[in-house]
Amino acid sequence: MARRWVRIAITLTALVTVGFAGKELRRSELALNNQHSVERVFTDLSWALTLALGDLRAAQQAYVAAGQDRGYWTSRVDSYLDAVRDGLENLGRLASDDASIEALKAAEATIADLERLDQRAREHTDLQQSLLASDLIFSDGLELTSEVAAHVELARSTERNNRSVAMRSVRADEVVVLGAAVGLGLLALLMLTPVTRQRGQPPFGRHKSREATAPPMVDA
Predict the structure, then answer these.
(1) Which of 6, 28, 82, 186 is deepest in the core (most CB within 10 A)?
(2) Structure pTM?
(3) Mean pLDDT of all residues in 161-166
């Protein structure tokens, strides 16, 4: 009777362990999928932001160029500035590392500097000072947009590396949980397997007892 309860206890323990391992593996897989999704969205947004910076740079250069429609291109600059600010805000909500958050804050500060520079360039064009406006856009403006792009790239690479480390850690935990479940399952299987002896063979103790009590042989 006691042996039966031991078997039941071992079976229940193995089932509970396997169930717990399955739950943990499912939870970790959901976490991995979430990490993959966030990383993919962050990467897509960062590349879209980089393209918007390129469009912003081109629009600024266009409205200080001779023969271009200044009103059209300044409106495009305003649109691209809004897109860049929105992109930085979206990236900031997804960022999880201090270094990437600081990089995005630096990018926002640089965009503010670029807006002030753009306003000065427009004032020069209003005064027909095209050379001064062009100098601002093609020198300081290019430097500032490149600086913003560098901050965005730093944030992107930092987030990618940190999420890769986090995902490797989750995978390592999965291996530990799975290994523990398999090991306990095998142990339970071994403990539940009945020990059989060959048919007709007496137990070792009885055989030894008979040998010990057999009468000694007397020489004729």
Answers:
(1) 28
(2) 0.68
(3) 76
- Reading phi first (left if > 0) and then psi (alpha if -120 to 50, else beta), residue 67 is in left
- Residue 197 — φ and ψ, nearest 5°? -120, 160
Give the CATH number of the domain where residue 134 resides. 1.20.1440
Residue 29: inside a domain: no
Residue-wise pLDDT tens digits, 50-66: 999 999 999 999 999 88
- CA-to-CA distance for 92 and 107, rounded, in angstroms? 11
The residues, any chain, with a CB within 8 Å of residue 133's CB and separated by 6 or more, are: 64, 121, 122, 124, 125
Q: 156 in a domain, yes or no?
A: yes
Burial class of residue 8, CB neighbours in 10 A (0-12, 13-18, 19+): exposed
> For the chain, how many structural domains are there in total?
1
Domain contains 125: yes
CB 63 within 8 A of CB 169: no
- The string of pLDDT tens digits covering residues 110-163 is 999 999 999 999 999 989 898 999 999 999 999 999 999 999 999 999 988 887
Report yes or no on 165 lying in a domain.
yes
Residue 107 belongs to domain spanning? 41-173
